[in-house]
Design goal:
The chain is of the alpha/beta class. The protein has 3 domains: 46 residues, no CATH class; 136 residues, Toll/interleukin-1 receptor homology (TIR) domain (Rossmann fold); 123 residues, no CATH class. It has 11 helices and 9 strands.
Length: 337
């Protein structure tokens, strides 16, 4: 067969394979005289007794700033290497979309380790990873545990460079005698928490309500910016959510929004840079900005925010207002969360 003939065979076989796989057809390699094309099987159906492979999961995900790369790889080796640990770029297959691979790695990891030092101050993407990780842990506490690991010791509150982690039990590397001590504690944690394959309905102890499923977000129609946010609802949220928890509620909303459409690169969501710092602004100023920015990102982002708000802390009037707003953006006038 000439080179051109071989290339034509491969193209024909590839096209036939795609069609056969799409239909779930199970055929041996053959040339079909009737259709004048090659049929090459690429996958077997469940009826043939072959189940699809389960997605990969990891015990640990290491998030680090570029200034902490040596410490990250040392800890990576101590925790078991590629068999146990997701670390970029080593765990990302060639040709993969980098940001999507990071998101998938975060969602597929049980213990998310945030290496924190003064280097994080200038590390935009490490701070973004920390925000998403915190949101995942709040949305699915049965699946994810976030552990801040302070390479230079636990900083004072005014020296914190990563939002949403100061209240979490952390590892102080100098006090543990180095990264080997930190690795021992992380391994013990991973063994005690299991594989994290429980359901999504476990109650979030921080909020006292069942974590919502991202599928609820997909039921909301895609649309333009939302107008007419009830002022009373914003005021009530500002009154019940303390400043120390405000950023974490936003993180949870962002995690829900991303989890609803993980492969959609066009999804936009709330970012802390667009909001006034909750620690230095009046709660009402912060939450007005949060609702305004969420609404600008469309009904699904606003819906994720409404799901993340601790509804059980609202008074009955505010709960009704929240339900009515959710019903309006989801196209169901009866509302209800």
């Amino acid at each position: 067969m000439t080179p051109h003939g071989v290339r034509g065979f491969l193209f024909a076989a590839e096209g036939a394979a795609r069609r056969g796989a799409a239909c779930g057809v199970l055929l041996p390699p053959t040339f079909c005289e009737e259709t004048r094309e090659f049929i090459v099987p690429r996958q077997q159906s469940k009826e043939a007794g072959v189940e699809p492979a389960k997605p990969r999961s990891w015990r640990f995900f290491i998030s680090y700033a570029s200034g902490n790369v040596e410490a990250a790889h040392t800890l990576f080796s101590l925790l078991g290497g590629l068999e146990e640990v997701f670390i970029a770029p080593d765990s990302i297959p060639l040709g993969s979309e980098y940001d999507q691979a990071l998101l998938q790695g975060l969602r597929a990891s049980r213990v998310i380790v945030l290496l924190i030092s003064s280097a994080n101050r200038a590390a935009y993407f490490a701070r973004e990873e920390a925000a998403i990780a915190t949101g995942l842990a709040r949305s699915h506490p049965d699946k994810h545990v976030v552990v801040p690991v302070y390479l230079q010791g636990v900083p004072n509150p005014e020296e914190m460079v990563v939002f949403g982690v100061f209240l979490r039990q952390a590892i102080d590397v100098p006090r543990e005698g180095g990264l080997a001590g930190a690795a021992r504690r992380l391994k013990a944690l991973a063994q005690s928490t299991g594989n994290g394959e429980g359901g999504d309905d476990r109650a979030d102890p921080a909020h006292g309500f069942k974590a919502p499923s991202p599928a609820v977000i997909l039921a909301i129609p895609i649309g333009p910016a939302v107008r007419h946010i009830p002022t009373q609802l914003v005021d009530e949220v500002a009154a019940i959510v303390p400043a120390r928890d405000a950023a974490s509620v936003v993180d949870e909303a962002v995690a829900l929004r991303i989890a609803a459409e993980p492969s959609n690169a066009s999804v936009t969501y709330l970012r802390h840079e667009a909001l006034p710092p909750p620690e230095t602004n009046a709660p009402i100023v912060y939450w007005r900005a949060v609702f305004r920015e969420a609404a600008l990102h469309g009904p699904r982002m606003l819906g994720a925010l409404l799901l993340a708000i601790p509804r059980d802390r609202l008074d009955p009037t505010a709960q009704t207002s929240l339900d009515e707003l959710f019903g309006r953006i989801s196209g169901d006038p009866r509302g209800g969360l």
